[in-house]
């Protein structure tokens, strides 16, 4: 296999001569046939920036790219987005499932690609457009599907401020639904890894709050829920600034945190008894 890779590198040297600051790496990309080769190379190639040479027999690809303009991850993401896994990125399930039968291979990668990537001007010949830049622009769009989770968390918090166990339970049922609707394979890579670690705790706390009308029990579970929601919202962000607040009195004087869309303190652990008890300790933007 090493000999074949070396030959591939040698044969691709001439075609890649136009790539400046060239860096060459070999990676495994899963596929089966000539059709796979065409799609893999078309997705990975960017004129004068990146070239992919994929070998059907070895499933190894030689990546040659301008290291000042792109990197291995960006190339592999583009390839994953047309249906082909690497050891780093897993293609979206719906894209893989739409591959021709002969192209569907055994899947082994663990980390999914979530972004919807639009590559502008890739592989276009601009020889007749003197004012058109050769630079390729990649626009990455990623929907924050956790917004419904955060929105429903805030509704639970607001219900606790009123000390209404029935309203809190109802709001938390909606939170449970939002949690269950999260498609982990559609999350951005870094968010996916965090969500995977905390989702069981978040779900359990939300269910416990939903299954009782006892405000004291609800508030006890809300402390743990808030801690894990904080972990997720820190990395995924929210559409507006979020304020991480702290009550020093709750939990037998150990204190407890919560998240709010308002900087003004409205304490969910005591409600009207000590509504303004606490302070903002962090602003998440």
TrEMBL record:
Residues 149-237 form the DUF3347 domain. Pfam families: DUF3347. GO terms for molecular function: metal ion binding. Residues 1-17 form the signal peptide. CDD domains: HMA. The keyword Signal applies. InterPro entries: DUF3347, HMA_dom, HMA_dom_sf. Keywords: Signal. This is Copper chaperone CopZ. It comes from Flavobacterium dankookense. The lineage of its organism: Bacteria, Pseudomonadati, Bacteroidota, Flavobacteriia, Flavobacteriales.
